[in-house]
Design brief:
Elements lengths: L4 H13 L3 E3 L2 E7 L5 E11 L3 E3 L2 H8 L5 E5 L3 E6 L2 E9 L20 E5 L1 H14 L3 E7 L2 E7 L9 E5 L7 E6 L10 E6 L3 E6 L4 E6 L5
Antiparallel strand pairs: 1-4, 2-3, 3-15, 5-6, 6-7, 8-13, 9-10, 9-12, 10-11, 13-14, 14-15
């Protein structure tokens, strides 16, 4: 098996959520943060022949990067990685014990969704860059009056720098939903976003089959 560039990107993204990963038999990959406040799921084009438990996903990705064109052959207790055009160049990478790896036991069912909007790729990138530039730990989606916006800021400091973007949300009435910027570990892209007052949010990528569920902060 060879991994597509998209699947490799998914694995790199999931490694930012949790270094542990269990890939179940089939073509669905899921992960969950250690704090259980981020869950992600992706459908990939490859079909994995068996369960694969990886304790350190960054280490596994580093192993793959040693090969120009890696080919993966899954055995019961390890995966053999070989160079496509030079099979004698190879690495035996052993699986972890699944009991020491964090993985979602079941996927989240979204409760009622009060707020929906689309976050385009450019706006998501700007928010991430702005939060990094000004050291903003918090993000708030709010509507006051007629307009809705997303702002990255420090909610504990009213005089801290902040950066805002307008967004077009459904419905009416005022609201504010708080997130931790560090939890917004989304693969680049445009997302359909749904927010529930039960303090959970859902992000569905519009161009690839990947989605995230991210917990809101309690004061939302």
């Amino acid at each position: 098996m060879k991994l597509s560039s998209h699947t490799t990107s998914v694995l790199k993204n999931f490694s930012t959520i949790n270094q542990n990963l269990v890939i179940k038999e089939g073509n669905t990959i899921t992960t969950m943060s250690a704090m259980k406040n981020i869950v992600a799921k992706a459908e990939v084009e490859e079909t994995f022949p068996q369960e694969v438990a990886i304790y350190d996903l960054n280490e596994f990705l580093g192993a793959l990067s040693l090969f120009t064109s890696p080919v993966l052959d899954f055995s019961e207790s390890y995966v053999m990685i070989t160079e496509e055009n030079k099979p004698s160049t190879k690495m035996k990478y052993f699986y972890s014990d699944p009991s020491v790896v964090t993985t979602p036991s079941k996927m989240i069912t979204m409760p009622s969704e009060e707020i929906k909007f689309t976050m385009d790729k450019e706006d998501l990138s700007k928010l991430k860059r702005a939060a990094g530039a000004i050291g903003a730990p918090d993000m708030v989606l709010e509507r006051v009056g007629d307009g809705s916006s997303i702002t990255v800021k420090d909610k504990k400091n009213d005089t801290a720098n902040n950066y805002s973007l307008d967004v077009d949300t459904n419905g009416d009435g005022e609201f504010n939903f708080f997130f931790k910027v560090e939890n917004m570990k989304l693969l680049d892209g445009t997302y359909d976003v749904a927010i529930s007052s039960k303090n959970i949010s859902h992000y569905k990528n519009k161009s690839s089959d990947i989605e995230y569920w991210i917990a809101l902060e309690p004061e939302s």
